[in-house]
Structures are given as structure tokens and as C-alpha cells.
Backbone:
């Protein structure tokens, strides 16, 4: 039996010059570093599109040596300003995953509100204490668990963040009940960031015309949720609404729903998520699990991706661990 083909998939979020975005200090890949990464990728890999991965399964089409797919999440305006021109100049295909409510309704996503709070706060320890105080008060009313319970679960480092940052992100993204979480996120954003949400959304996200131009130039447009909610936190009908809402992006840019690609918010999914996507004709869906992607029929809706930080930003750098594995 012929072993499955293997591809590398890389995920990016913000790509912009230092402190050039609408909120200073947001975590991002510097444009100069991105340019170096593209040169490194050109040297060691063959860029292909996510549709090429689907064709490798559907039609048995062979992929070129060391195929790599570049993906860009959330639909940021910097993708139009800095990423798209460079990809065009280098003739590198890519897949863009905007969030429907940010693109269409210009809604500022909670995940971005939280990023802005973390970028703007002067004292992280004080922020943690303020959040714990709110959680403690809510727990006394029976609205959530006490802070000690959340700390036992979420006070831990990730690949890129220290424990305090992970704790803040997880509580404000999904761990707290929405009745506690949503007002807390809005209050922190209002008091710490104090920027008009609609104005920030217009500055932060691309619009439909931007995506039309990218699609016309050969870029792939996929779906990435309606509100950027972690699917396993929702019941089945809620997951269905989040996925169906996400597909509005495809309609807005004139992309087909018959064989689309999807990116899970924060990479999270469960069997229900996979079943719902399969029933809607999704052909490839991407997680944030770091690994090379095996292109096998049973694995196309749970494909792993590497982070941009896993790659050198110098074209002449020696092959990284992941590049050596791709060899």
C-alpha cells in the first residue's frame, strides 16, 4: 500500500511592522521576518494551495516535493496591506480564513478584545487580581466556580505564553460562563483599551472587496467561524449555527460551498464538529496541533498546522527541525 503523502501547513495571524497596527503591542510577525520566512520557504519547500491538498485525495494528484501551505487566520487588514502584495510578487499561493461577523457585520471579536487588553495593560499581575476578584464575587452568587478552581486548570504555560497570560486568555475566551465572561471582557476592554469598537474593527479587519481581489488573484478563501467561538464549548445546534454562519464568507466572495476548506477557532473541535463539516461538504479542515499533515481520507478534517514561530526568518538559516522532518 502506498503511504499517504505528507504536507507542511503553516498558520499566521497578524503580520505587520512593529507597533504599526491600530493597537500598539499586539503580538504579530514582523513584516521583515515574514519576508525572510517566505524566502526560507521558497528555498526548502514547494508552496501549494489548500485545494491542491484536496486534489491529492480526490484525484490522487501527486504533490511536488516538500509541499507547504500558508494559511492566514481571522481576516486582518494587514493581510491585505503586507501579506498579499508579497505573496503575489513571489507567486506563492495561500489560504485566508476570515471570521464572518468581523468581515460582514464589522463586529470586534472577543478574541481580539482580549488581545488588545493584554497588549494595553501596564501591570499583568494587577489584571489577574482584578479578574480573580470579579470571579470570586460571581462565584459567591453561584454564577461560576471560585478562582482557585480555574487556576488549577488554566494556570499553566503554553508553547508561546507564560502561565498568567494563558490564565487570562482561557478565562476570558471560554472558561467562564458567558453571563460572567462577556460583561467582564467588555468592561476590561472599555476601561483599559478605550477605543471605539466599530472604528477598531474597521481598522483591524479586511472587507469583502479585499477578499474579492485576493480570490481573483488566485488565493483561496475559507471559513473560520461566525463569531470565532471554540466549537466544543457549544451544543450540537450551536456548533451548526457557528459553522453555517461561517459559510456566509464563501457566499460574500462568490466561493463555492461544495468543496470548501475550514479552520477551527483556536484549533478546537470534536466528533460533532467533524460530522457537521463533513455533512456540509467540507473537504479539508485545519487545527492548531503542531505536526506535519498526513493526507489520508480519514484525516482531512483534522489536519495539523505549524506556527509561524516554528520557522526561521532568515532565508539562509539551516533547515529547522520541522523542515528536516519534511525531507
Residues:
Amino acid at each position: 500500500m502506498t503511504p499517504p503523502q505528507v504536507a507542511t501547513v503553516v498558520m499566521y495571524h497578524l503580520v505587520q511592522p512593529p507597533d504599526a497596527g491600530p493597537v500598539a503591542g499586539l503580538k504579530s510577525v514582523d513584516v521583515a521576518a515574514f519576508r525572510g520566512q517566505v524566502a526560507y520557504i521558497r528555498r526548502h519547500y514547494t508552496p501549494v494551495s489548500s485545494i491542491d491538498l484536496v486534489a491529492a485525495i480526490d484525484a490522487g494528484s501527486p504533490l511536488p516535493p516538500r509541499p507547504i501551505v500558508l494559511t492566514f487566520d481571522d481576516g486582518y487588514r494587514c493581510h491585505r496591506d503586507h501579506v498579499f502584495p508579497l505573496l503575489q510578487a513571489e507567486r506563492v499561493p495561500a489560504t485566508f480564513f476570515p471570521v464572518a461577523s468581523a468581515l460582514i457585520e464589522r463586529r470586534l471579536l472577543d478574541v481580539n478584545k482580549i488581545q488588545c487588553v493584554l497588549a494595553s495593560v501596564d501591570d499583568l499581575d494587577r489584571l489577574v487580581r482584578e479578574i480573580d476578584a470579579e470571579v470570586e464575587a460571581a462565584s459567591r452568587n453561584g454564577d461560576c466556580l471560585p478562582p482557585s478552581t480555574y487556576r488549577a486548570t488554566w494556570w499553566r504555560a503554553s508553547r508561546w505564553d507564560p502561565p498568567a497570560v494563558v490564565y487570562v486568555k482561557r478565562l476570558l475566551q471560554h472558561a467562564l460562563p458567558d453571563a460572567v465572561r462577556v460583561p467582564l471582557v467588555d468592561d476590561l476592554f472599555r476601561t483599559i483599551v478605550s477605543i471605539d469598537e466599530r472604528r477598531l474593527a474597521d481598522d483591524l479587519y479586511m472587507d469583502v472587496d479585499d477578499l474579492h481581489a485576493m480570490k481573483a488573484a488566485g488565493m483561496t478563501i475559507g471559513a473560520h467561524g461566525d463569531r470565532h467561538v471554540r466549537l466544543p464549548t457549544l451544543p450540537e445546534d450551536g456548533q451548526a449555527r457557528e459553522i453555517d454562519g461561517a459559510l456566509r464568507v464563501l457566499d460574500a466572495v462568490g466561493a463555492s460551498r461544495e468543496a470548501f476548506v475550514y479552520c477551527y477557532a483556536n484549533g478546537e473541535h470534536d466528533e460533532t464538529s467533524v460530522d457537521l463539516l463533513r455533512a456540509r461538504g467540507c473537504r479539508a479542515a485545519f487545527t492548531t496541533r503542531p505536526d506535519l499533515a498526513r493526507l489520508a481520507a480519514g484525516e482531512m478534517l483534522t489536519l495539523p498546522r505549524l506556527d509561524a514561530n516554528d520557522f526561521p526568518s532568515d532565508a539562509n538559516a539551516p533547515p529547522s527541525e520541522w523542515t528536516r522532518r519534511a525531507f
